[in-house]
Design brief:
This protein is an alpha/beta fold. It contains eight helices and eight strands, in the order H-H-E-E-H-E-H-E-E-H-E-E-H-H-H-E. Strands 1, 2, 3, 4, 5, 6, 7 and 8 form an eight-stranded mixed beta sheet that branches. Strand 1 and strand 2 form a beta hairpin. Helix 1 packs antiparallel against helix 2 and helix 4 runs parallel beside helix 6. The longest helix has 20 residues. The radius of gyration is 20 Å and the shape is globular. The two termini are 36 Å apart. The N terminus and C terminus are likely disordered.
Length: 303
C-alpha cells in the first residue's frame, strides 16, 4: 500500500503544543491502520490457458500479486509480436457486470499490451506470423460497489468546497472494492512457452480512479496488467522491484488518444485521452468515454 507516502505530509503540519502533536500522531496511526485494510483481496487462479504452470515463480509488486516465468534470451531475441484478443473465463462472468462491460475490460487489456509491446517489438495483425504470440485470459473479476464510489466522490467534492487549497487527500471508502485476475502467455513460433504470468490486483482506498460502475475497478486495473506483462516481455525480466524507463513519445501520444505506433493496434481502438482522464477523475462509467471497436475486435468467448 501507499499509506506511508501520506504520513510524512501529516507530520509536517505544525501543532501549537506537544499534546496536539501526540494527538496528531495517534490519529495518523489509526488512519493508516484503517486504510491498510482498505484493499480488495485477489485470487491467483489457474485458468488452464497456459502451456505450463510448472515454471512460474512468485514475484509480487507493492500492490500486485503474481507468479511468472520468462526466458530472457528467447524474448529478447524476438522482434515481432501478435496479440490474440483476450478471452474471459466462465468464473469471471460474475453477476452485476454485463457482457458489454466485460468486453470493455478485455479490450483495455489488449490495447495496453499493444501500446506497451510497441516500445520494443513490431506489432503485427492478429492473423500474421510473428516471433511471439501473446494471449490473455481474464480468470476473475469482482464488481465495484457503485454506491460506495458515489459516496467517496461526494466526500471529495465536499472537501474541495469546504477546504479549498488544503493538500489533504480524501481516501476512498474501503467498501466494495473491485479486483481483476488475469493470466497471459507469450509463445514462440513452435508453440513453446517463452513467458507467462498469473496476475492479480485489487483496488485500494488511496490510489487509482474510482468509477461509478460495477466494472470500474476492473477497467482501471486492466491497463495495469497490460503494462506489467508488456514490460516483462520488453525487458526479459520481472516488471516488479525496479523503476520503469520513461515512456517514448509514441507511448505518450497513444495515452493522449493519438494514433498508435503500429496500425495493428488500431484493432483495439484508441485511448480515451483527456476525456478519459477527466472521466476517471469525476468517476463516470468507463463506457462513457471508451468503446470496443466494432470490426472484428469483440472479445472471444472462453473455450
Amino acid at each position: 500500500m501507499v499509506v506511508h507516502r501520506l504520513l510524512p505530509k501529516v507530520r509536517r503540519w505544525r501543532m501549537p503544543n506537544p499534546s496536539g502533536r501526540a494527538t496528531l500522531r495517534s490519529a495518523a496511526v489509526v488512519t493508516a491502520a484503517s486504510l491498510m485494510s482498505g484493499c480488495a483481496t485477489v485470487a491467483l487462479d489457474q485458468g488452464g490457458s497456459l502451456t505450463s504452470y510448472g515454471q512460474l515463480q512468485p514475484s509480487d509488486g507493492v500492490l500486485t500479486k503474481s507468479k511468472l516465468y520468462v526466458r530472457e534470451d528467447g524474448v529478447l531475441a524476438a522482434r515481432t509480436v501478435r496479440i490474440v484478443p483476450a478471452t474471459i473465463a466462465g468464473k469471471a462472468r460474475v453477476e452485476g457486470i454485463t457482457d458489454q462491460e466485460r468486453r470493455l475490460v478485455a479490450n483495455a487489456i489488449d490495447r495496453s499490451l499493444c501500446a506497451g509491446l510497441s516500445e520494443r517489438f513490431t506489432v503485427v495483425a492478429a492473423g500474421d506470423d510473428a516471433d511471439l504470440t501473446v494471449h490473455s485470459l481474464i480468470t476473475q473479476m469482482t464488481p465495484t460497489d457503485e454506491t460506495a464510489v458515489a459516496a467517496s466522490k461526494g466526500a471529495s467534492v465536499a472537501k474541495t468546497v469546504l477546504l479549498p487549497g488544503v493538500p489533504v487527500p480524501v481516501p476512498r471508502i474501503p467498501i466494495g472494492l473491485g479486483s481483476l485476475s488475469v493470466e497471459a502467455e507469450a509463445r514462440a513460433r513452435d508453440g513453446k512457452q517463452e513467458a507467462a504470468m498469473v496476475w492479480g490486483r485489487g483496488a485500494n482506498a488511496l490510489s487509482g480512479s474510482a468509477r461509478v460502475s460495477p466494472s470500474g475497478d476492473a477497467y482501471e486495473l486492466a491497463s495495469a496488467f497490460g503494462d506489467d506483462f508488456s514490460r516483462m516481455l520488453v525487458t526479459g525480466k520481472t516488471p516488479f522491484g525496479s523503476l520503469a524507463k520513461p515512456p517514448s513519445m509514441d507511448r505518450i501520444q497513444s495515452w493522449a488518444g493519438g494514433a498508435p505506433k503500429y496500425a495493428a493496434c488500431e484493432a483495439f481502438g484508441r485511448e480515451p485521452g483527456i476525456a478519459g482522464l477527466v472521466g476517471g477523475a469525476i468517476g463516470v462509467p468507463p463506457d462513457w468515454n471508451d468503446k470496443v471497436p466494432d470490426a472484428g475486435t469483440a472479445t472471444a468467448q472462453a473455450q
